[in-house]
Amino acid sequence: MTVRRLPALDPLGALLGAVGVAALAFLPFVVFKSNRIVPGEARALLDFLPAGPVFGFYLMLALAAGAALFVANARLRLACALLGVIALAIAVAAAGNALTPPGNKVVRVAPGAGFWVLLIALGLMTTDAITRLRPGPALRVLLLLIFAVAAGLAFASGAFDHLSIMREYAVNSDRFAREARQHMLLAFGSLGAAVVVALPVGILCHRVPRLRAGVIGTLNLIQTIPSIALFGILMAPLGALAAAFPWAAEHGIRGIGTAPAVVALFLYSLLPVVANTVVGLGRVSPAAVDAARGMGLTTWQILAHIEFPLALPVILTGIRIVLVQNIGLVTVAALIGGGGFGAFVFQGIGQTAMDLVLLGAIPIVMLAFSSAVLLDALVDLMNRAAQ
Amino acid sequence: MINIEGLSKRYGSTTVVDAVSMSIASGSITVIVGTSGSGKSTLLRMINRLVEPTTGRVLIDGADTSLTPAHLLRRRIGYVIQGHGLFPHRTVAENIATVPRLLGWERSRVAARVEELLRVFQLESASFGRKFPHQLSGGEQQRVGVARALAAEPALLLMDEPFGALDPVIRGKAQDDLLDIQRRFGTTIVLVTHDMDEAFRLGDCVAVMKQGRVLQHDRPGVLLTRPADPFVTRLSGTADRALKLLSLTTAGELAEPGPTEKRTVAAAASLREVLSDLIWSGADAATVLNPDGSSAGRLTVARLLAHGRQG
Amino acid sequence: MPKRLKSLLVFALLVLGGMSASQATVVVSSKLSSESVMIGQMIRLLLNASGIRTVDRTALGATPVVRKALIAGEIDIYTEYTGNAGFFFNRSADPAWKELRAGYELGSRLDYEANRIVWLAPANASNAWALAVRKDLARTNHLRTMSDFARWVSGGGKVVLACSAEFANAGTLRSLEKTYGFRMRPEQLIVLAGGETSATIGAAAARTNGTNTAMVYGTDGGIVAADLQVLDDDRHDQPVYAPVPTIREAILKANPRIAQIVSPLMASLDTATLQALNARVQVNGESAAAVAEDYLRSRRLLP
Predict the structure, then answer these.
(1) Alpha-carbon distance A282 to A267, whole Å?
(2) Quick one: B102 and B163 in the same domain?
(3) Strand ranges (DSSP E) for chain B?
C-alpha cells in the first residue's frame, strides 16, 4: 500500500493560518458602542449581515489560509493574500454600514480585536509573498505607490465613513491636515538640519581619530536622555531666548512648540548620521584613496568623487534610521505644543477615546513604513551603482 | 632626468630613508629592490611627494619638485600601486579617464586615448570600457591600473610592487607586457619590488636598498659580477647566479659569425634559454635567427660558458 | 543674503506694527481635555465676533506646558482651574481652595503678584473629584448631597463604588470619609487601574459587579449619558476646580473689553450646562468648536 505524503506545510503559513482561525473564532470582529465613551459590546458578523456574503467572506479567508499553508508559488500567495485583505476591508465597511442606524452620528462601530489580528496576519502574508518575489527597488516603490493610491481611493469613496475611527477623522479633518503637515515638517526638517551638521562632523571625526571618541561619546550621552525630558529641558533656554529677542519669537523660535521639538529631534538625529558617516568612510578601500592621491586629486576631490560616493550607502542607511526614529519621536512633541499626529494620540488618551489615539497612531506607523521602504530602495539603488 | 639629492625621511627618531642620492636616466627602467622595511616604498613616494622628505630634494628635468603644488605635480606622474586601487564605483573607461579629465582634455581626446590604451593593453572587447572593476579578473584589473596611470601621457611612471598581487602564472606575462609598453611609449619607469628576479628581468638599472640606504645602483650584470656588499650577493642569490647572468644578455647580442647550424634560436632569446635549449637537444651550437629570418650569427656552448664565467 | 533681508524686513514691519495699533492678535490657548478646548473655542469665537483678531492655539499641551507658555508670554489667554493655583504656589493645604469665592480671590491675588496674570470671572462649577450615584438609587434613597450619601452608607446602604487606585489610596477617599463620617469596606470598592472616569462611569451605568456609584469629575460628559447624579460636596471637603480664564495683564490692558466679553459666558456655564456640553463632545463625538459655536448662538452671546 503506497503511503500518500501530505503536501509540505509552509511554516509561516501554518502560524498565520492558526492565528487567523483563532482570531475569527474567539475574538470579536466588530464592537458596537452606543456612544463614544461607552466600552461597547462585541457583535458577530452573522448577527447583522446576510448569510450569503458572510460565508463568501469566510470563504475568501479560507482561501487565503489554504494558500498560506500549501501554496509555494509566491505570486499565487500574494494574490490570495490581497483577496483576503480586500474581503476584510469590504466586511468591516459593511459592518459599519449595517450597524449604524441611518442619520445617527452618535453610535460608534469600531473594528474589534479579531479584525486587527486578521489584518495583521493577512498583511504579513502579503509582505512575505512580496519579499519572496525579491522585487528590485523601483518595483518596491511602485508597489508602495499602488497600495497608497488604492487605500486613498478606498477611504475617499466613503466606504469606511461609518467606522469609529473615520468618525473621529470627520470631526477633526482640518486639524488632521494641519497636524500631518506639522508632523512631516518636524520629522524632515530636523533630519535636514541634522544631516547638514552631522556630515561635516562625521568627516572630521573620520579624518581626526582623536576626536572620534569624544564626539561619539557625547552624542551617545545625548541619545540616552529620555525624549520627554529633553523636550522639557529645552523649553527654558528657548523661552528665555524668545523673551530676549522678539524677532526670534516671530520666526517661531519659542519655548514651546516647533522650536524645542526641532532642537531635540536634531540632537537625537546626530548620532546615527555621524556614526554611519565615520563607518562608511572607514570602509572605503584605502588603496583607492592612495591611488587617487597619487594621481593628483586634491583632498576635496577625493572626498567628493571617491570617498563620499563609496560611503553613501552606509550614510543613507544612517539617515533612514534617523527618519524612522524621528517620525516616531515627533509623537512626543505634541506634549509641548509641537503638534503633529501625537496631538491626536494624547488627546485621545486624555479623553479615553481609543479611536482618536488610533487616528494619530496609524498615520505615524504608515508614514514610518513608507519612509523606510523609500529610503531602503534608495540605498539599494546606490549599492547597485557603487558596486 | 630624475635627480635625487640627499633625500632623507625621518619619523621621530627612526630614519626610514637615509640620505639617498641617485640619478635616473630618461627612458630607462630603474628597479629599487630590497626587503620589507628597507625604505624602498618611502623613497618612491617621496618622488611624487605622497611622503614629504625631511631633507633633500628631487629634481625632475632640473625642476625642484617641491616648488609645484603636490597635486599638480602628481597629475604629471603616473602612479601604480599593488592593490591596483581602481575606483569601484566607476567603469574601466571612467577610471582610465580620471587624470586626463582632471587636466581638462576635451571629451574626444579623452575617449580616443581610452580606446588606444584598451587596445594596447589587450582589453579589447567592445564593452570592456563599460565594465566595473569587480567584474574583471586580477590580471585585467592590474592592466587597467597601469593603463590608468599612463592615460595622461606622463613622462614618468612610478610603480610600487605592481605585480605582487598576481599569481605566478600571469606575473611573467604582465612583466613582459610592461617591457613592451615601455618600449612603445618611452616612459621613464621607477619600480619598487622585493623580488630580485623581477628586478633583473625588468631593470636597466637596479638599486639595492637596505635600512634606508642604497647599497648599489648599477646595471644588473654589474650587481652580479661585482657586488658592492655581501647583502647584494645574498639578495641576488649565489645558487644560480651564473644562469642569472646569462639571462641578462640576449642571443643576438653575443652571436658571433660562424657556420650555419642545424639548431636555431631566436635573437631575442636570453643566453640562459639558449644554454638550456642546447643542453636539452644535445647540440653544441645553434644559429641565431633575427625576427625576419635572417641569420645573426651563431652561438656555441663554449662561448656561453665563457660568458657565464665572468664572475 | 535674501533670508537676512527678509528677517530685517519683518523686524522693521513688526516695530512699525507694534507702534501703530494697540490691538494686536490675541493668542487663545487651552489644555488638552475636551472641556478646556471647548471653553477655549468659546472665548476665541467671542473675541472674533467683537472684532479682536485671534490665533487658535487650543489643545496646546498638558498643564505645565500651557502654564509656562502663558507666563513666558507665548500665549495670551487660557482657561485654568481655581484649585490648581494651590499646586502652582505650593499652598495646597490652604483651606481657601475649598470654597469657590475664597479660592478665586486667593488664586487671583497670588497669580497677579507673582506673574502679572489676571484672573477673569470664573464659572460657577467645579470639575473636582466627586462621587456620582445612579439616578434610580438617588431617587429611592433621597440622595442629593454627600451627607445624604454618608448617612445611607453608614445605615447599611448597599454601595459598590468604582474608583481609581489614586482616588482610593492617595487620600481623597479617606478625606471624604473623615469629613462626612462614613467608612467604605474593601468589598464595597472596585479599584480600576488608571484614572479614567469613563471606565468608572461605564461600570456604574452597566452595573458591572453591582457598581452603583462612580468616581467622576464634576463636569464629566458621561454623567448625563449614564444617568448618574453627582453628589453635592456640602461640607466642602474637596478643593473647588472652577474654570477661570487667565490672561496676561499686558494683553488685557491693550484690550480691556475682553473682561466684559468673557464674563457673561463664564456666568452662564454652571455644572449642569457643562455636563451637557461635555456630553455632546465626549459622548456624541461632536467637534468642540462646533459645540462651542452652537452654544453661543443658543444663548445669544454672540453679538
Answers:
(1) 23
(2) yes
(3) 2-11, 14-24, 29-33, 55-60, 63-64, 77-80, 156-160, 188-193, 205-210, 213-218, 264-266, 285-289, 295-300
Kindly report, residue by residue over A340-355, the tens digit of the pLDDT: 999 999 888 877 788 8
Per-residue confidence at C21, pLDDT binned at 50, 70, 90? Answer: very low
Chains A and C make contact, 3+ CB pairs within 8 Å: yes
User: Residues B129, B248: one domain?
Assistant: no
User: Identity (one letter) of the amino acid at B18?
Assistant: D
Is the domain of B17 the same as that of B123? Answer: yes
Q: Order across the sheet with C77-81: list the strands.
A: C54-57, C26-29, C77-81, C243-248, C117-119
CB pairs under 8 A between A and B: 67
The answer to whether residues B206 and B261 belong to one domain is no
Residue B87 with chain A: CB contacts under 8 Å: 288, 291-292, 306
CB-based contact A297 B102, cutoff 8 Å = yes
Per the structure, the complete domain to which residue B289 belongs is given by: 244-308
Nearest CA in chain B to A290: B85
Q: How many domains does chain B have?
A: 2
Q: What is the CATH number of the domain that holds B71?
A: 3.40.50.300
Q: Of B181, B214, B237, which closes a domain?
A: B237
| Of the partner residues B81, B87, B148, the one whose CB lies closest to the CB of residue A306 | B87
Q: Note whether B248 and B218 are same-domain residues.
A: no
Tell me: the pLDDT tens digits for A24-64? 888 888 889 887 777 788 888 888 888 888 888 888 888 88
pLDDT band at A239 (very low <50, low <70, confident <90, very high): confident
Shared-domain flag, residues B223 and B291: no
Task: Please enumerate residues of A whose Cβ is less than 8 A from a Cβ of C.
Answer: 35-39, 105-106, 108, 167-168, 171-172, 235, 239, 242-243, 246-247, 249-251, 254-257, 334-337, 343, 346-347, 350-353
A291 to B132: CB separation less than 8 angstroms, yes or no = no
State ipTM: 0.85
C to B contact (≥3 Cβ pairs closer than 8 Å):
no
Output the pTM of the full model. 0.79
Subunits close to A (at least 3 CB pairs below 8 A): B, C
User: Using one digit for the tens of pLDDT, what is the confidence trace for A245-254?
Assistant: 777 776 667 7
Claim to verify: residue B219 and residue B266 sit in the same structural domain? no
Domain CATH code at residue B281: 3.90.1280.20
Residue A386 to chain B, least CA–CA distance (Å): 4
Please report the pLDDT score of residue C266 as a whole number: 94
Last residue of a domain, one of B189, B213, B237: B237
Cβ contacts of B134 on chain A, cutoff 8 Å: 387
B119 and B208 in a single domain? The answer is: yes
Q: B62-71, B246-255, C64-73: which has the highest mean pLDDT?
A: B62-71
Distance from the C62 Cα atom to the nearest Cα atom in chain A, whole angstroms: 6
